[in-house]
Amino acid sequence: MAVKQIVMYPDPVLETPCAEVTVFDKKLAKLLNDMYDTMIEFDGVGLAAPQIGISKRIAVVDIDDDMGTLELINPKLLEVNGSQVGPEGCLSFPGLFGDVERPLSIKVEAQNRKGKKYIIEAEEYLARAILHEMDHLDGVLFTSKVIRYLEEDELEGVEAND
């Protein structure tokens, strides 16, 4: 496994919609493993492929709960319910945090590393993390959704996203 360099804003890859994944092979499996290692190394809860310079619809999310690591390939949002506002940050914007409004619960269809489709239902923090990463795949940055930027002293004990 290898830790990759995080792409920082304003690199254009971060605002470019990503291509669908069509080949599910060992190269993809290695990329997913590298993305996980990179996310952990930089203390994130999610990482999208464009954040390491790869414009493909791939993301990993792990909020350290009983769901474990989620590998989201070609994810599609099927359903949203409710609303929540909470703090988010991004590995591509170090030190920047803001409150973002997102759905409270979601249903997403994605593929795993072997190409098999599956459905995940998530709520609250996990839903927020998944949607943050899915936005990256569409070239949408959390900064475009911030309601209010947060000062560092407002972040004590608060979990932020990738």
From TrEMBL:
Listed cofactors: Fe(2+)
Signal peptide coordinates: none
Enzyme class: hydrolase
Active site (catalytic residues): 133
GO term, biological process aspect, one: translation
UniProt-annotated binding residues for Fe cation: 90, 132, 136
EC numbers, comma separated: 3.5.1.88
Free-text remark on how the cofactor is bound: Binds 1 Fe(2+) ion.
Pfam family, one: Pep_deformylase
CDD domains tied to this protein: Pep_deformylase
Keywords associated with the record: Hydrolase, Iron, Metal-binding, Protein biosynthesis
Record carries keyword Hydrolase: yes
Domain of life the protein comes from: Bacteria
Known catalytic reactions: N-terminal N-formyl-L-methionyl-[peptide] + H2O = N-terminal L-methionyl-[peptide] + formate
Gene Ontology terms for molecular function: metal ion binding; peptide deformylase activity
HAMAP family reported in the protein's UniProt record: Pep_deformylase
Cited NCBIfam families: pept_deformyl, PRK00150.1-3
Family designation: Belongs to the polypeptide deformylase family.
Protein role: Removes the formyl group from the N-terminal Met of newly synthesized proteins. Requires at least a dipeptide for an efficient rate of reaction. N-terminal L-methionine is a prerequisite for activity but the enzyme has broad specificity at other positions.
Protein name (record): Peptide deformylase
Organism: Niallia circulans (Bacillus circulans)
Gene name of the encoded protein: def
